[in-house]
Amino acid sequence: MSTNLKGKAIAVTGAASGIGRATAKMLAERGAILAIADLNGEALETVVSELKSSGAVVTGTVLDVRDAKKVEEWITDIVERDGRLDGAANLAGVIGPSTGISLIEDYPYSEFEFILDVNMKGIFNCLQRGGEGQKLASIVNMASVAGAIGMARNCAYVASKHAVVGLTKSAAKECGGCGVRVNAIAPGVIDTPMVRGLDTEIKDINIERTVSVMPMNRLGKPEEVAEVVCWLLCEGSSFVTGSVHTVDGGWMA
């Protein structure tokens, strides 16, 4: 099975931490030419420095994926610099402070709007702008197991991830004839700063309790999700599109 990414120009959002960071590192190790972006400029600079020190070809851009114009400018710059864009991993995402606390009737509207703007509209912007004049081989979007089920006290995140699944499948239907594949990943409980931040006494979320009912009985590693992203970006998955790949230790089995 081919996993060759050497010389491929690939864009990654949400690359400063967690799954995005692990994906950027893995892509660099496999020879990709990287354009990575994140809203956290300081953390992004650290990742760029680490990757460059390992010999990777990488540029970093502070980017708010909610801003369609800025997303378009970023992608245009990539194509002008590298001559093409072979793949994109749209991994930027957030979980709000009301997750695990607020019912729908009490959920702050501003937070609901913010989560959908980043998780859903951000991916819409990347999909829409990424297709302008480019012929990407593969696009991978960040969904979640929360895109397949309902979760109490988690309405905004769940709604946003259901939307990502719908966008992914719709884009795959539209792009198939152009040779562009569009898939999504659906991580379960992964050991990232975002997930660790949910595990507090005041939230109706307990990581250990969740892990205890999973067949593999442990947290996932960011690198285990990154492996799936890299596979979806490479030619080894050439007949895979419109799919949602769970990486959840069997949670959804």
From TrEMBL:
InterPro entries: KR_dom, NAD(P)-bd_dom_sf, Sc_DH/Rdtase_CS, SDR_fam. GO terms for biological process: abscisic acid biosynthetic process. Gene3D superfamilies: NAD(P)-binding Rossmann-like Domain. CDD domains: SDR_c (cd05233). One of its GO terms (molecular function) is oxidoreductase activity. Keywords: NAD, NADP, Oxidoreductase. The keyword Nuclease does not apply. The keyword NADP applies. Pfam families: adh_short_C2. Residues 8-188 form the Ketoreductase domain. Belongs to the short-chain dehydrogenases/reductases (SDR) family. This is NAD(P)-binding protein.
